[in-house]
Amino acid sequence: MKKNNEVMVVGHKNPDTDSICSAIAYAELKNKLDHEHTYVPCRAGHMNEETRFVLDHFHMEAPRFLPDVHTQVKDIEIRRTEGVSSGISIMKAWRYMQENNVVTLPVLQNDKLSGIITINDIAKSYMGVYDSKIMGTARTSYRNIIETLDGELIVGDPDAIFDKGKVLVAAANPDLMEDYIDPDDLVILGNRYESQLCAIEMRAAAIVVCEGARVSKTIQKLAQERSCTVISAPHDTYTVARRINQSMPIRHFMRTDHLVTFQLDDFTDDVRKVMAKKRHRDFPILDENGCYVGTISRRNLLGTGRKKVILVDHNGAEQAVDGIEDADILEILDHHRLSSVETIAPVFFRCQPLGCTATIIYQMYREQGVEIPAPVAGLLCAAILSDTLMYRSPTCTEPDKDAAEALASIAGIDTMEFATRMFRAGSNLANKPVKEIFHQDYKEFSVGDVSFGVGQISSMEQEELDDLEKRLLPYMEECYPTSGVSMLFFMLTNMLTSSSRLLCYGPGSGELAKNAFNARETTNTYTLRGIVSRKKQLIPRLMLSAQNEG
Predict the structure, then answer these.
(1) Is 401 helix (H, G, I), strand (E, B) or coil?
(2) What are the b/e assignments for 345-374, b being 16+ CB within 10 Å?
(3) With contact defined as beta carbons under 8 Å apart, do 244 and 208 qualify?
(4) What separation, in Å, do the N-terminal and C-terminal C-alpha atoms of the chain show?
C-alpha cells in the first residue's frame, strides 16, 4: 500500500467562518492548479452555528475533522501481504513465503485476522515433531496430502480428513505388517500387491503408493469397499515420508493468542514503543472494522512520511492543530501578526494586513485566472463579512470590501441582507452550553511570562449579550484553574453599537485591562466603546500593557 498524496488544508483550533471557508476555497483552488496531489479541506475543531448556516446556505459539505496531524500507521508504507486460509498446508505456506520474500503470513477468516504463522513456526513444525500421530491430530485433508506429494487421487474423497491413526512406512513383508498396522492408519508403501492388500485388509484409512506405481483394479475395488483412500505419488518412499508432514494445515501451528496488531489510526510513536518490546519481525495492521489490511515492520517506520499540511488563517503553533510539529507544512496563508510556527524547509508564506484570509484567497483565484464557482464565492464572501463584522471592524480594508462585493455578485447574494441572516443564526446562544459558547472562538496569546486566553462572541441583540454575561463570569471562574493561562478575557461584542463588554478573570487581569484602556477603576468587566476587533484593537493593547507592567 503506497503512501497517499493528500495535502490537508486546515485552519486554527476553535475554527470561525473564515477558517472553515478559506480551507474549503483554497483546497478547491489547489486541486485545479496541482494534479499531482489531492488537497483536502479540514477543520481542527467543531464548527459554530454561524459557519453551519453558511455551509447549509451554499449546500457545501463540512470539512473533514482533523484532531491532530501526528504521523499514523496509515501514513507509512504498509506491505500488502495476502492473507491465507488456516487450512492450507505447511508446504504451501512455505512456498508462498519464499515467492513473496516474507517471513510472516496472516491467517484470515472472512477478512478478519484469526492468527499468524511465521517461518520460525514452520521450522519448528518440521524439526520438532516426532509424533507419528501428529497428522491425524492436526486433521489433515487428503487434498493437502495430494498437493504436497504431487500425487494423484485413485480412490476416495479429496476433501475428506485424515483425523485418526498414525503414519507409517510399510517396509516389511505382509506377515510382519499385520503386527504394526492399526485401523485408521495412513500407510506409505511401494508397488507390492501383497503389501497394499494387507494394509487395506487391516482397515487402514489410506495408503500412499510410491514411485508412481500402478494400482490394480482389484486393489481399487477393495479400497472402495473398505473406504480406504488410495493416493499415487511419483516420488520414492524416502521423499514421500520426508514430505508428508508438510501437508498438515497451518491452523495446527499458527499463533492465535496474544497477537500484537495495530490500527490504521495508531500513532507511529506508540507503535515504536510496542515494537521495541516484541521480538516479532512483522505486525498485522487492521482497519476500523477489524479487517486485515497488511503488515509493517520496524524497517517501515524508518521511512515514515510526515503528513502534508497547508495552514490558513493562522501561523502560530499554539493555535494550530495538535501534532503540527510532526507535520510537513507546505504553505501558510494568514492575515494576523507573525507568530511561532517553525518549519523544516522553506515554505510559501503569504501574510497580508487585510481583514480576512478569504480576501487573500480571492486575490489568488484572480491572479491564477481561475473562475470561482458560485458556492465557493458565497463561502469567501461570508468569511469576509464575518471577520469584518459587516465592514464595521477596524481591521476591514478597501480590498476586503471590494472582494466581498465581487464575490457576492458571483454567488448571487446581497451582502447586507445575507450578513444579517448569518449573524442572527450565529448569535442564537440561549440554548447553548456556556462551555461551548466560551470556547467557540477562543484563542491564546502570550507576552513574556504572561499568557492569556481571549474568547469572543458577536451578537445583534444586547439583551442576549447581557444574559450571556451572567452565565460566562461564573464559568470563567470555574475553568480558570485548568485553563493553563495566567488570565482569561471574553469579549461580548454588539455589532449594531460597535462596542464590546470585556469580562476579566485571573490575578491581575482587571488591572491589565484598566491600564490597556485607561479605565478609572479596576473591575472584572469593562465597556469598550468602538472596540470590536480582538486582533487589531484588544490584543495589541493588552500585550502593550503586559509589557509595560513587566
Answers:
(1) helix
(2) eeeeeeeeebbbbbbbbbebbeeeeeebee
(3) yes
(4) 55
424-463 in b/e form (b: 16+ CB < 10 A) is: ebbbebeebebeebbbbbbbbbbbeebbbbbbbbbbbbee
CB of 321 within 8 A of CB of 68? yes
Q: What is the pLDDT of residues 503-536, one digit of tens each?
A: 999 999 999 999 999 988 889 999 999 999 998 8
pLDDT at residue number 550: 62
In the structure grid, which three cell numbers stand for residue 239, read together? 521423499
What dotted CATH number matches 434-549? Answer: 3.10.310.20
Domain 73-88+99-123+253-302 - what CATH class? alpha beta
Which residues of the chain fall short of a pLDDT of 70? 1-4, 127-130, 303, 550
SS3 label, residue 404? helix
* Cα 390 off chain centre by: 39
Alpha-carbon distance of 480 to 502, in angstroms, equals 16
CATH 3.10.310.20 positions along the chain are 434-549
Q: Where in the chain is the domain with CATH 3.40.1390.20?
A: 139-247
What pLDDT sits at residue 129? Answer: 59
Q: Which CATH architecture has domain 139-247?
A: 3-Layer(aba) Sandwich (3.40)
The correct answer on CATH 3.90.1640.10 for the domain covering 6-71+307-425 is: yes
Among residues 199, 172, 195, 171, the alpha carbon closest in space to that of 185 is found at 199
Give backbone dihedrals phi and psi of 286, rounded to 5 degrees, phi first.
Answer: -120, 150
The number of angstroms, rounded, from the C-alpha of 47 to the middle of its chain's C-alpha atoms is: 21
Contact 96, 108 (CB under 8 A): no
Question: What is the CB-side half-sphere exposure of residue 452 using CA atoms within 13 A?
Answer: 28
DSSP for residue 521: S
Helix or strand or coil: residue 147? helix
CA distance linking residue 550 with residue 547, whole number of Å: 5
Q: State the cell numbers at 405.
A: 462585493
Rounded Cα gap, residues 301 and 299, in angstroms: 5
How far is residue 495's CA from residue 12's CA, in Å, rounded to a whole number? 24
3-state class of 254 per DSSP? coil
**pTM of the shown model:** 0.67
Residue 473 neighbours by CB distance under 10 Å: 17
Query: How many Å apart are CA 216 and CA 526, to the nearest integer?
Result: 108
Residue pair 390/495 in contact by the 8 Å Cβ criterion: yes
The phi-psi region of residue 151 (left if phi > 0; otherwise alpha if psi is between -120 and 50; otherwise beta) is: beta
Contacts of 249 (CB under 8 A, 6+ apart): 86, 87, 88, 89, 90, 138, 139, 140, 141, 144
d(CA 187, CA 230): 10
Q: Beta-carbon neighbour count of residue 378 at 10 Å?
A: 26
Q: What is the pLDDT of residue 317?
A: 86
- The residue whose grid cell reads 503408493 is 209
Residues of the chain with CATH 3.10.580.10: 73-88+99-123+253-302
